[in-house]
Amino acid sequence: MGFKALRLSIAWSRIFPNGDDVEPNEEGLAFYEDVFRACREQGIEPVVTLNHYDVPMRLVTAYGGWRNRTLVDLFEQFAQTVFARYAGQVRYWLTFNEINIMTSACFMGAGIIFHEGEDRYRSIHTAVHHVLVASARAVRLCHELVPGGQIGCMLNAGIYYPATCNPEDIKAAQDENRKHYMFTDVQVRGAYPCYVLKEYERQGFQIPWGEDDREVLAANTVDFVSFSYYSTRVVEASAEGKYDSNLLKSAPNPYLKLEPWGRFIDPLGLRITMNDIYDRYQKPLFIVENGLGAVDEPNEADYIEDDYRIAYLRAHLQAMKDAVEEDGVDLIGYTCWGPIDLVSVATGQMSKRYGFIYVDLDDEGNGTRRRTKKKSFDWYKKVIASNGEDLS
Q1: How far apart are CA 156 and CA 145, in angstroms?
Q2: pLDDT in tens, 106-118
Q3: Which residues are the active-site ones (predicted)?
Q4: What is the pLDDT of residues 283-312, one digit of tens each?
């Protein structure tokens, strides 16, 4: 297809199988070295996420996940190991995938299994602090160990619109957006914002500051802001969310169509979100996830004519270009989700397909595993070759 970049992640447990091992697993290190070498041979720039919803299971069962501060040191060991090993092979790094999801998907994002009667708010936000400190330490190590390396944060983005111009709805939307921007506020600016400190005060929560945490956060801010974008969301002050929207909830939006799994299709929302993030931080942006999950059915010729995916990507890429060319947003790049059909993280389904390459497997794992090009394959190949200029 001519990919210029490939976003992937390094599984912590492939390098340190238990998470607290003294020595790394050489077989795991060699595996990724082969992957990066293959990328380089094909002219592909690896964009590597350090932690993509994975914590070695022993760190969950024996340590309690990210609520335990020991994980900060263990993650630093992991980060130091991979930076040192791949310093000459990988220039672009991300710390934690969709870091803001850890408050709503606590096991997946933070390795937390709650106990009966546990103070969940305290546990979640203790874990949040530990992850933010671990992220800052990783930034420090990257800058020390990777010559010319760039490292960013990663947000599950898509702004919340107010349902109406009722000030109550507008305030509710502001509050909801802040719940997610709090993570990048710390990672980009180096300190907790005042609205978070006031919320913690109201909740009676004390940030579990380590000896040098404040200095580490302040001195090790990210180089760029990366994010996923699938949909915007809507907040109505007096109503609970009714639609799933990439692990988060939304009130209805009568102005937008829905894809089969309940996300709003909102290409203009991508431009709005890009501007919102860039206005907030004035840091380069990197869109590292965007795509359409759909049921792809082969026709009589055993071919997937996914014109709906082409239309979705064309509209979103045009909105991205408008944000750059019309609004002046500084954008490093764009990687779609994803090149090949795989199991959806959000639903555990194979039938929720994103790829340009069809994989013959169903939700139960049955099928030949045969891979075939969809119509979108050649279309996106042309997009890459023209660096996004030809979207026809």
Answers
A1: 28
A2: 999 999 999 999 9
A3: 289 (nucleophile)
A4: 999 999 999 999 999 999 999 999 999 999
